[in-house]
């Protein structure tokens, strides 16, 4: 538990170090980018750290703290210049800050708790992911040494592993966080950043912006930016986070039908012809011992609903449940961050 809290605390430190920069960059959004601040801070710290180590201006050990100091110093300078706006935002959007932090914490703790049931790396492509994370955590320079090919550097996109290794090293200064624990906490962090990022984007799409309020007329600012919570945008944001991070395709409904096929209409759901028509092999009707599907790895079929030649079609929740710390999984919060940048440009008065 101490490792989990240490990771969460260091994520807060990274987010706070870059918060004034984030609020300035996303100032045209209703939430000023607060819901994206943790992903923004982690990306900024990780990228500067990677650049400085790559060109030899910092080492891979204490260099992380040097980068944190640089980012925090730049933020402090900007905070002093924009202190009135930052204080005003905190007073007007205190409820959004609390909601975002509560959502982040609850999602992170829940994801870490679920990972604690299957924390091993013995299946699918977890050994490879764990190997790359170890390589990045132990690296003295970048690109890191390839664990599979002695004397050569890693020939793989490794920046996502770098970000998780940065958090592992930072958290290790508070509590002992080896890479075996950092792997699972890193995945839990990705889940939490995905949920808060989706929540923030939908909130920003449905809440009144400063530009919209200004175009509506001078008498609307107090109403649009009062300190009262905007419940509808937050509800929409939660729905968006649920749809992106938790919901999958309709194959889950078919799994329930298959598990209860002998209790339902035998001529339809119990017939082999129906399941051949559905064509999600090897899905077929069976007699479940529980109310839920209980076949081994039944949930894996949800990513193979088309012909095998059509490829794999994962949804985020499947990837979170499977536990492979792949680059395409680690990129999700930062894709949402990029969408946030696009939304900021959309709200801008100046053309590109």
For the record, the count of structural domains works out to 2
Number of helices: 17
Strand content: under 5%
What is the arithmetic mean of pLDDT? 84
Q: End-to-end span in angstroms?
A: 47 Å
Number of DSSP E strands: 0
- The low-pLDDT segments are 220-224
The biggest sheet amounts to: none
Computed CA radius of gyration, to the nearest angstrom: 23 Å
Secondary-structure-derived class: mainly alpha
Shape: globular
Share of helix among residues? 55-70%
Order of helices and strands: HHHHHHHHHHHHHHHHH
Structure characterization notes:
The chain contains 17 helices and no strands. The longest helix has 28 residues, at 179-206. It has helices at 2-25, 37-54, 63-81, 83-92, 94-115, 126-138, 159-172, 179-206, 210-216, 221-224, 231-245, 251-259, 266-269, 272-278, 316-322, 327-330, 332-347. By secondary structure, the chain is an all-alpha fold. α2 (37-54) crosses α3 and α8 crosses α11 (231-245). It folds into two domains: 2-246 and 326-347, no CATH class; 251-314, no CATH class. Residues 220-224 have low confidence and may be disordered. Helix content is 63%, strand content 0%. The radius of gyration is 23 Å and the shape is globular.
Write the layout of secondary structure elements.
Elements lengths: L1 H24 L11 H18 L8 H19 L1 H10 L1 H22 L10 H13 L20 H14 L6 H28 L3 H7 L4 H4 L6 H15 L5 H9 L6 H4 L2 H7 L37 H7 L4 H4 L1 H16 L5
Helix pairs in contact: 1-2, 1-3, 1-7, 2-3, 2-7, 5-8, 6-7, 7-8, 8-11, 8-17
What's the gist of this structure?
The protein is mainly alpha-helical and 352 residues long.
